[in-house]
């Protein structure tokens, strides 16, 4: 018994190939149109925003020369002495760097706890009332819209210089950002456990505790760790306005043109952030169910 493979008539094959070519051409034209529109929008935005690429190219040599000035002079014959001279204030900077990490930790902890509490009444599928949900969402929008640097300036003016201003500024901004992320996680949960707790007469707190929280806890922890990485960098920036941490010394070094100090502090910050990124990445992968399955 022979089995034949059915084939289309030649004219039908030609029609299908022609239709395929027309579709490919149409999609290519769409992509070109989108790219052209983006190019026009970029040009218009640059014109209205007074962005001049020529100015960047004209001063590019100054940027590269600045990086050359902040690099220390390390000689092979006197390598140890040159490194010791480069990091003359190593232990002082290390203490300030530890303060920076503590600022990020406390701010992340405060923002995470606040966001975890308010994410459930802000979620559309769990909110006990529409008015409460509206108020909570507007509060979260305000906290994440105002930059943490602006919050830091406000708290430094109100409370004075020091780490407290940095903790409050980064904590409030983290609260707003994490609240948005946590709310979206809660809105995507499986509602069957929630309906089960609700059918037994459970109150809102019990619905959250037994129906929703077990489903979202790994995601909340993962987002909190990711935010901690971001806050370590942010805590170094808010130090520029006197909110504590190593950012204050970095700002002084930049303003007073202590070039070698700038590179030494920047390298410490980069190494610290890289180590924290690696550690939190491993923890996040262990927390996420999808990662464990893979």
Please tag this protein with its features.
294 residues; mainly alpha; MetI-like fold; 2 domains; 13 helices; 81% helix; disordered C terminus
What does this structure look like?
By secondary structure, the chain is mostly helical. The protein folds into two domains: 12-51; 86-293, MetI-like (MetI-like fold, Orthogonal Bundle), CATH 1.10.3720.10. The protein is built from 13 helices and no strands. It has helices spanning 10-48, 53-58, 60-70, 79-86, 90-122, 130-145, 148-159, 163-187, 191-199, 204-238, 247-255, 259-287, 289-293. Helix 5 (90-122) packs parallel to helix 8 (163-187), helix 5 (90-122) runs antiparallel to helix 10 (204-238) and helix 6 packs across helix 8.
Give me a quick take on this structure.
The chain is 81% helix and 0% strand. The protein is mainly alpha-helical. It starts with 9 loop residues before the first helix and ends with a helix.
């Amino acid at each position: 018994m022979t089995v034949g493979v059915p084939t289309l008539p030649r004219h039908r094959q030609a029609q299908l190939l022609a239709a395929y070519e027309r579709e490919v051409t149409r999609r290519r034209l769409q992509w070109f149109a989108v790219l052209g529109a983006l190019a026009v929008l970029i040009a218009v935005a640059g014109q209205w925003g007074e962005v001049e690429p020529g100015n960047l190219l004209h001063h590019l040599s100054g940027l590269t020369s600045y990086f050359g000035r902040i690099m220390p002079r390390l000689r092979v014959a006197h390598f140890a002495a040159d490194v010791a001279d480069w990091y003359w204030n190593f232990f002082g900077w290390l203490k300030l760097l530890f303060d920076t990490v503590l600022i990020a930790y406390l701010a992340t902890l405060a923002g995470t706890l606040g966001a975890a509490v308010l994410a459930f009444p802000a979620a559309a599928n769990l909110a006990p009332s529409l008015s409460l949900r509206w108020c909570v969402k507007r509060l979260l929008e305000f906290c994440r819209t105002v930059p943490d640097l602006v919050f830091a300036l406000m708290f430094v003016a109100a409370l004075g210089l020091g780490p407290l201003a940095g903790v409050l500024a980064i904590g409030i901004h983290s609260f707003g950002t994490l609240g948005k992320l946590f709310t979206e996680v809660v809105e995507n949960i499986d509602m069957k456990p929630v309906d089960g707790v609700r059918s037994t007469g459970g109150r809102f707190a019990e619905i959250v505790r037994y129906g929703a929280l077990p489903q979202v806890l790994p995601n909340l922890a993962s987002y909190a760790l990711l935010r901690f990485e971001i806050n370590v960098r942010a805590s170094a920036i808010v130090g520029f306005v006197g909110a504590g941490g190593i950012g204050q010394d970095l700002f002084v070094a930049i303003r007073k043109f202590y070039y070698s100090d700038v590179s030494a502090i920047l390298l410490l910050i980069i190494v610290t952030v890289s180590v924290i990124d690696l550690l939190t990445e491993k923890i996040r992968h262990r927390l996420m169910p999808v990662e464990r399955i893979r």
